[in-house]
Structure formats: C-alpha cells, structure tokens
Fold Pyridoxal 5'-phosphate synthase subunit PdxT.
Amino acid sequence: LPRIGVLALQGDFEAHLRMLAELGAEGKAIRLPEQLEEINGIIIPGGESTTIGKLMIEYNLLEPLRQKIRDGIPVWGTCAGLILLSQETDNALAGQPLLASLDIKVRRNAFGSQRESFETDLVVPELGEAPFHTFFIRGPLVEKVGPGVEVLATLDDGTIVAVREGTRLGTAFHPEVSGDTRFHQYFLRIVESVSN
Ligand code: GLN
C-alpha cells in the first residue's frame, strides 16, 4: 500500500486525504521534516502559495522537501502546489520560495476577474476518454514548458493546465474536489511504478 504524504501547512489538504482514503491508499498529513522519511509520494495542495512557501521555511520543510524531490520521490502539485513546484513564476511576491522541481514557468491568478474561478470539462488522454470535470479556483496557468515536460491537458484555447515531467505532476486545477478519482489513481500508479 503506497503511503502518500500531503503537505498540510495550509490549503485544502483535507480533500486530498479524503480522496486517498477513498482509493484505499494511506494518506499522511505532513508537517515535520522527519515525516518525509515515511512516505512514497507527496502531494502539495492548493491554497495560497505565498503562505505555504513562508510556512515551509518556518517548519524547516523547504530544503528537505527539495532534496527529497531531487532524490526522486514522486510529487504532485495542485494549483498553489503547482506554483510552488515551478522553476519560475511571473508575479511572485518578494521572497516567495519555489521548489523549482518542474521545468515550467507559471503565471499566478492567471484567469482574470470574471473567470477567476470556473469549472470545465477537460480532455485528459492519460485518464481515458471520459472528460474530467474539474474546478479552477484562482488558478495559475503554465506559460512555458521545458523540453522534458509533457503536456497532459489544455483548455480549449490551448492554455496548458496539466503537466508531467518524469515522476512529477502539476495541475492548475483542483482534482481533489471533483469527486472523480482518476487523477489521484494516475498519481498512485506513478508512485507504484517507482516503489516496486
Ligand atoms: N491563487 C493562489 C496562489 O496564487 C492559488 C489558488 C489555489 O490554490 N486554489 O497561490
């Protein structure tokens, strides 16, 4: 049984833990660096990326987490988590720490006021034919991807909203509140493929 850590400093980590429980995986709320030793994969949830970044420093998690990801633990960032995993963000506040684990550039709060939050049906070929109904909540968009980055999903206008680079995943939206477990299953398969 894979043990999946969910960074639980701020944001909607509870929804991820519920989703994992539903799938029979063991979810673990992560607040201490030593807890990183007990897990096979980690999810960085949505919330407020500046706040989560500050708390990662305060809880001494930034460097250990960076190192753990460098060592190859599968990681998935959703929304604010995607921002934290990125190499570069256009409008980071001063001092915003980034894990710099995905070779992408993101734009925060990218969807403007009237579309700040919206729901949509995404085509995600990796998840099969049925569209993935999901929620964008003041999400970022992916502006630029490096050569090793695979695009998993775009909006109708071509905007990149889900990426994968090796065992690292990023989604601009919130699959944990959709009721559709396929994205979590997809991540669990990545975790299983490296833990065996
Ligand atoms: N707007 C938030 C940020 O910039 C992200 C929103 C979210 O995670 N739902 O960090």
Q: What stands out?
A: Residues 3-195 form a domain with the Rossmann fold fold (CATH 3.40.50.880). The mean pLDDT is 95. The chain is about 25% helix and 30% strand. The longest strand covers residues 102-107.
